[in-house]
TrEMBL record:
It holds the Pfam family UPF0004. It comes from the Eukaryota. Residues 56-177 form the MTTase N-terminal domain. The keyword GTP-binding does not apply. Keywords: 4Fe-4S, Iron, Iron-sulfur, Metal-binding, Mitochondrion, S-adenosyl-L-methionine. It comes from Eutreptiella gymnastica. One of its GO terms (biological process) is regulation of primary metabolic process. This is Uncharacterized protein.
Length: 560
């Protein structure tokens, strides 16, 4: 399902799209011009004539990926700009919003359970003669995928897809007005990136998410994302740089660049076409781009990564989720040469079997993937690699499953996200393949994958981490911290979780393990501090250690 022949600055019409995007009869149409207009960050709804109600308390629950968290921050900004106020309690909210995930059945089941709870809140208020029962809105991918079914739910007042969040104030106003008619806007856009909206984050945090692009063009057989989030489009570089500069001024120490296919970023704006000389798309050697030519002038992911890494040398930069096909050597060398770009890559493999990868339409073989892993580790010393795995995909045999296990042992991943296959309607697999692996077999294979990963990561950390000093960005108290035994937690640039005792340490690091060699005054480490921690224990993916000294990213690099 392609949009390549459609004009820019036009929201596609569900009525003219094929049956993959069936419109509901209550759907509303937005203005045809939803694209970003970068004139500084502006109030997205200050001129919204349809917004008649003010001062409502709203609560947002977020499920799924980091992109949903980022989207919830956009929604919070839009509603605050419309005169509403966020509240921390769902029981006290006038408007309850649930930002949903549709990538697996389990994710959707959580939402159905929450809807039942929201209905119980509504009944309690009615029994208590509360004048205003809560309005419930469903946002995100599940709203896009199951709009008709959701609108049949008694507890749902409106639904809103990922590209229609600017319309939420109107949808809220319509629902609060007492109209029996339910409201919906699930239209996808060819342009919308919310580039001009300043996200409103819940609280001061060490890390911040910054969305750089939306949508996905890959059309992997199993994946619903292109159907719930539409085609790829990228934010202009100036708006991204401006947002990250603001975060640096607020003291944020780590930024996670987000996109469904983050490293296929391509800013085609006229300014970028003039400023950046890159004109041709270069995929990873041995990988193929199956569905769309990406040639054309403008800024690529390497250009953006270089720009944001220069904003603040003390701010770490991460990115997710990439596709292995979009890692030209230029990106790998840039990571190696930039101390504040984190030394970790997420390389989703999904399966170690060539035949399964072909059915998944991933565009590469296990041999090409292993070649990329070897190259990346040679270019980037100390690189940590994470991946995704799906067990029990359509037609998967025992031999194909063993190929995945063999690949896991060969690569020795530092982190893995592992799931049993869940068939999604509208996908290529749902239309052309049979979900023929029994559920118990899927679960058994998933457990095998999980156990294999745990064995390998434990073995790897025992060899590579014990006794080493690592630079940790402190995030806050550890989960098991108590007043009697305070513990702090943070992550290394390889994205490994580190837990250490919270005590006074030396201020300054000169490359010595012995605390007396650090010199300087004593300080208490706080969230946002860089702390040198000597690793003493590895428990799976989590490391434990002893805090040695507070330092800076630049100082730590000098001492290496």
């Amino acid at each position: 399902f392609f949009f390549s022949n459609m004009k820019q600055q036009m929201v596609f019409s569900c009525r003219k799209a094929n049956s993959l995007f069936k419109p509901c009869k209550l759907q509303v149409r937005l203005s045809a011009n939803l694209g970003p207009r970068l004139q500084g960050f502006v109030d997205p709804v200050e001129n919204n004539e349809n917004t008649s109600c003010k001062g409502l308390r709203f609560h947002i629950e977020t499920y799924g990926c980091q992109m949903n968290t980022s989207d919830s921050e956009i929604v919070r900004s839009i509603l605050c700009g419309a005169g509403h106020t966020p509240c921390s309690s769902v029981e006290e909210a006038d408007v309850i919003l649930t930002n949903t995930c549709a990538i697996r059945e389990n994710a959707e089941n959580k939402i159905w359970n929450r809807l039942a709870y929201f209905q119980s809140i509504r009944k309690k208020r009615q029994l208590a003669n509360d004048v205003r029962a809560p309005v419930v809105g469903i946002l995100g991918c599940m709203a896009e995928r199951l709009r008709d079914k959701l609108l049949e739910e008694q507890s749902v007042n409106f639904i809103c897809g990922p590209d229609a969040y600017r319309d939420i104030p109107r949808l809220v106003s319509t629902s609060v007005s007492g109209s029996d008619q339910k409201a919906a806007n699930t239209q996808l856009s060819l342009e919308e990136t919310y580039a001009d909206i300043q996200p409103v984050r819940e609280a001061s945090r060490v890390e911040a998410f910054v969305s750089i692009m939306r949508g996905c063009n890959n059309m992997c057989s199993y994946c619903i994302v292109p159907f719930t989030r539409g085609r790829e489009r990228s934010r202009p570089i100036p708006s991204i740089v401006q947002e990250i500069q603001g975060l640096a001024a607020q003291g944020v120490k780590e930024v996670l660049l987000l996109g469904q296919n983050v490293n296929s970023y391509h800013d085609k704006s006229l300014d970028s076409q003039k400023a950046y000389s890159t004109t041709s798309y270069r995929s990873t050697a041995g990988f193929s781009n199956l569905f769309r030519a990406r040639d054309g002038a403008g800024a690529r992911f390497a250009d953006l990564l270089r720009e944001v890494s220069q904003i603040d040398p003390e701010m770490r930069i991460r990115f997710t989720s990439p596709h292995p096909k979009d890692f030209p050597d230029e990106v790998l060398h840039l990571i190696a040469d930039s101390p504040n770009i984190c030394c970790s890559l997420h390389l989703p493999i999904q399966s170690g079997s060539n035949t399964v990868l072909q059915r998944m339409r991933r565009g590469y073989t296990r041999e090409a993937y292993l070649t990329l892993v070897d190259k990346a580790r040679k270019i980037i010393p100390g690189l940590a690699i994470s991946s995704d795995f799906i067990t029990g995909f359509c037609g998967e045999t025992d031999a194909e499953h063993r190929d995945t296990i063999d690949l896991m042992r060969a690569v020795q991943f530092d982190q893995a996200f592992m799931f049993a296959y869940s068939l999604r309607e509208k996908t290529h697999a749902a239309r052309r393949m049979e979900d023929d692996v029994p559920k118990d077999v899927k679960k058994e294979r998933l457990q095998h994958v999980i156990e294999t990963f745990r064995e390998e990561v434990q073995r790897k950390n025992d060899v590579e981490e014990i006794g080493k000093c690592r630079l940790v960005l402190v995030e806050g108290p550890a989960k098991k911290s108590t007043p009697e035994h305070p513990m702090s937690t943070g992550r290394t640039d390889t994205n490994k979780r580190v837990v250490f005792e919270d005590h006074v340490i030396h201020d300054g690091w000169h490359g010595k393990v012995a605390p007396t060699a650090c010199g300087g005054r004593s300080v208490q480490p706080n969230p946002g501090d860089y702390v040198v921690v000597q690793i003493t224990q590895a428990r799976g993916h989590t490391l434990r250690g002893i805090a040695i000294a507070r330092t800076s990213l630049a100082e730590y690099i000098r001492c290496q």
